[in-house]
Amino acid sequence: MDGFPIGLVLFALLVVFVIAGLGKTIRIVPQARAGIVERFGKYKATLPAGLNVVVPFVDKVRYMIDLREQVVSFPPQPVITEDNLVVSIDTVIYFQVTDPIAATYEIANYIQAVEQLTMTTLRNIVGGMDLEQTLTSREEINSGLRGVLDEATGKWGIRVNRVEIKGIDPPPSIKDAMEKQMRADRDKRALILTAEGQRQSAILTAEGNKQSAILNAEGDRESQILRAQADRESQILRAQGEGQAIQTVFQAIHDGRPDQSLLAYQYLQMMPQIAKGDANKVWIVPSEIGKALEGLGSTMNSLKGIPDDVDGPAKRVDMGPASLDVAEIESEQKEALARAHDEVAAAIAAAEASTTTPTGTPVTRNAPGDTPPAGDPGEPPAQ
Predict the structure, then answer these.
(1) What's this model's pTM, rounded to 2 decimal places?
(2) What tens digit of pLDDT does each residue of 156-167 get?
């Protein structure tokens, strides 16, 4: 009974020892990781990803190295340019561990080493550039940093894949000066564009006014020509119409064979018309109006060509039918217009064919269809 508990305890201790030994023997390494195994403080092996077996209590996994690409952002660092201006530059490094053994035993802290190397290299590169070149040469700075870092970190088992500059911040005074310069440049370009636009507008406006003046002048010239031609034709037609009216009235008077009583009647009809004048304020009718009319008749009797009495019945002037058909009126109007056009053309031809005598008196050739005058215009018509 006394030995049973002791054996149970020993068995339990043996089971615990075996479990602990198995725990120290089996090592599971995650994907994209590498385990550095040391035996009694000395490098023994590198464990790949997966299930690995080591000697318990003899081998020890000292470091677990991440083989993935890593990104490290460094805080802004003051850098002096060639023109003695201090700018703050912050960078981002993309690197990857390619040799876990070198990254473990060649350097104590490779991230800190990369940061310090980036700072010194950045100062060397930017120190040979002025501010404007620094602000516009990011790609050149990135290439220079990458080349130096890749060459220096190769022996540490690290490969620098990419270097990026996050920002370059000049001093506040330089920022204000740059903003003023950019604002002045923008104002200058705006003024230049405005002036060019005004010039183009003035040129187009002047060209438009020129074309408008030319067209207005041409229109005025053509309208004056057409108006003159219309006035000439209208005067010719009016003169011909007045001539025809005079001939018609004169012929009607001779055909009617007027006497002294008709002239006295016409005189009486004209007296009210004379009294209608604006300047005639007072009109005196003589008491001897009859004697005045007799005297007027006796005076008119002495005129040639107007007899006291006429023989036979008076000849009436044919005034045409009382009403005409609309079609007949239109046809007559068309015929009258055609005759007027022909007469205007004949008058124009006669005016163009007119010549001047050596003494300076104009002589006009008779147009076709015109009746030559009977005698001297200054002499009275023959009886």
Answers:
(1) 0.45
(2) 999 988 888 888
